[in-house]
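Sample intake — Corrinoid adenosyltransferase
Collected from: Pseudoalteromonas ruthenica
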Amino acid sequence: MADKNEQHKKRQQKVKSEVDARIAEAQTEQGVLQVITGNGKGKSTSGFGTVARCVGHGQKAAVVQFIKGLWECGERNLLAQVGVPFAVMETGFTWETQNREADTQAAQQTWQQAKVYLQDSSIDLVLLDELTYMITYDYLDLDEVLVALQNRPPMQSVIITGRGAHRRLTELADTVSEVRNVKHAFEAGIKARAGFDY
Ligand code: ATP
Ligand code: MG
């Protein structure tokens, strides 16, 4: 037993010194571009979690929702109360609408607001929720999005969520996470729940 404890201690000491060395090496102070993609559940909630983290440090965050849900959004109800600005696309889920022209116009309008946030150095974090679909459907010009992301204030972080992130988006990003679907309650017929799914 004592042997095992000693072994564990040694191993942890080694891990700690390796981690400490890597932490000391990370010297660059700059905002991070993160893409959260994949088919599993947890992309938007992760983005909103970081918004809460940011606000909790007294920093400023802004949220752009490129697909307005059928349901009200719990995070929005909460975060709007603490002054987080929201820009919401005024259409339903895009896979429900069949009017490309109206969708494009709505996406463009929402993007104009996103661009204002992406030029505002007082905003520490911008969440571009479900942006990936706007590029997949060609509602927004990929090059224009990439340029706006690249020209943002250097200390500003940006999180992009949505399935099927374009390769050029993930290439530009500093941090990319893919949420894999192992299983989802919906597949077993369990209804989406307020306070859990939205
Ligand atoms: P969440 O907002 O819960 O973090 P998400 O952003 O990863 O989910 P979206 O593709 O934006 O996922 O879908 C939003 C809604 O669809 C949520 O209500 C979520 O529970 C549901 N959903 C997410 N992934 C799946 C899945 N693999 N199968 C069925 N429903 C899903
Ligand atoms: Mg989502």
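Post-analysis note: The radius of gyration is 20 Å.
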